[in-house]
Amino acid sequence: MILGELPVPIVLAPLAGGPSTPRLTAAVSEAGGLGFLAAGYLTADALRTRLDETHALTRRPIGVNLFVPGRPTAPETVARYSAGLADEAARVGAPLGEPRFEDDDWRPKLDLLTETPVAVVSFTFGCPAPDVIERLHGVGSEVWVTVTREDEAVHAVGAGADALVVQGAEAGGHRAAFVDDPGDRADGIGLLSLLQLVRHAVGVPLVATGGIATGAGVAAVLAAGASAAQLGTAFLRCPEAGTVPVHRQAVASSVPTAMTRAFTGRLARGVRNRFLDEHSDDAPVAYPEIHHVTAPLRKAARAAGDLDLVNLWAGQAHTLAREVPAGELVGILAKETDAALTAATARLRRP
């Protein structure tokens, strides 16, 4: 498996929605980690272009992450929430978007990844059917599934997953849960607890993600049984990332994070701002419909530099993110990890 071949046990989180770029993916892979390219929100043609750009920058292995399609939400549920956003639209001078359900170009992307295979294809928001996994295995790709609970892990391994990305509640961005439970706001399982539970339940390699920003954090999850650590927020301030200025500003701040469905209709963790605080209680489970409703507001706010209307996805340790080139960051993290593991071993050997 590729996890056993990586010079550095660091995986780049996909970072869909803007921060993911071919330059960032390639930089992490060139530095000895595994760079991932986000396919979420892209058409298959746009993904093809980004794959071509990435392959022109590196010959090292890369991964691609796909969103597993969900189910449509009742139109009246979305309409009730949208009606409450009229003042927000007037304030920013942008119309609300049209709510619609779509599958994120699911089949064409799968076709592309069987025509142009990559080392790893990972999945978020669910587990693909066994025949999809077999199809990707047939072209030589490993299949990873992101899980947030023990039962999801068992299901994914049963479907044929080669490895699991274990996402703790500390993680920034969308929760990868197979089903977005309306009763779940902030009670997800923390990473170290979840690693232990999943490691006890299944025997495949694990990649830990959620709140990891330093080599000490990487060392901690390796000691807990992970084969590698996946970091996303830690790379948001790198120059290769497509992170917009307001998002960079928020990541560098000391403002805490919170869970919300206000921006997209799916539970996600981001830096707190006015929109998150005022609309989280009203936001229903309705993804991607609400994502499309708020998209014009968020676009206008990003252009205006208005932090209060933008989804500022970030993990709980976002204040530790460093503004350095991605390849340099991988090297720093590798040295910090070695030092942390050496120090821990020395402490264990004391009489």
From TrEMBL:
<keyword id="KW-0216">Detoxification</keyword>
<keyword id="KW-0560">Oxidoreductase</keyword>
<dbReference type="GO" id="GO:0004497">
    <property type="term" value="F:monooxygenase activity"/>
</dbReference>
<dbReference type="InterPro" id="IPR013785">
    <property type="entry name" value="Aldolase_TIM"/>
</dbReference>
<dbReference type="InterPro" id="IPR004136">
    <property type="entry name" value="NMO"/>
</dbReference>
<keyword id="KW-0285">Flavoprotein</keyword>
<protein>
    <recommendedName>
        <fullName>Propionate 3-nitronate monooxygenase</fullName>
    </recommendedName>
</protein>
<dbReference type="Pfam" id="PF03060">
    <property type="entry name" value="NMO"/>
</dbReference>
<keyword id="KW-0503">Monooxygenase</keyword>
<dbReference type="InterPro" id="IPR001295">
    <property type="entry name" value="Dihydroorotate_DH_CS"/>
</dbReference>
<comment type="similarity">
    <text>Belongs to the nitronate monooxygenase family. NMO class I subfamily.</text>
</comment>
<keyword id="KW-0288">FMN</keyword>
